[in-house]
Specification:
Blueprint lengths: L2 H4 L13 H8 L17 E2 L6 E5 L4 H6 L6 H12 L7 E5 L6 E4 L2 E4 L4 H18 L3 E5 L1 H8 L5 H4 L4 E2 L9 E5 L2 H5 L7 H17 L4
Parallel strand pairs: 2-3, 2-6, 6-8
Antiparallel strand pairs: 1-3, 4-5, 7-8
Length: 216
Amino acid sequence: MSEQIERPGAAAWVPARADAGRLRAAAAECRGCELWHDATQVVFSAGPASAPLMLVGEQPGDREDLEGRPFVGPAGRLLADAVTEAGIDRKSLYVTNAVKHFRFEERGQRRIHKTPGVGHVVACHPWLEAEVAAVAPQVILCLGATAARSVLGRPASVTKERGRVLDAPAALGPGVKVLVTNHPSAVLRMRGEAGFDDALAGLVADLRLAASHVGE
């Protein structure tokens, strides 16, 4: 089967003008790319349907794939701690991923995370557009380069984009602000190293910066 046939894109499965709950239900049937074949289930989003701050990650991991909820694994726990440290109520956040199925490679009994390709990000993008339309966040914080590429519609470097307040593309609606930070998994990988505390503090600072632009 050709790659083009396997990645028709999610648009055909995205219901028009749907709220977040209906989108979440519809995503279970998505066949927009080949990742659904091997994933346990779709992992869509969590949080209130009208949150002013949206966090967009890369893709679900192993634990998320098994439980069907985003950011419930080790990186998710680190993110939860950072959100608390930033003084943000987790219940006020809408959390999702650029890609809704877990991409991995098997090594023995383990499933190892494999970064989604550009084709997967593009195929899944209609879901993200629909989520932004339904939730209408004021600010989107991209967790990592894959999320930033999906939201901004272009290649993005976390190092170059961090600390900048950007305008979302017109397709995501007028007035939406976008910021970029490191993915919690990148911070987690530094645990036990000299730079871990600074990396975690940077994530907390970026969360606070994003939250500070809510209501402007």
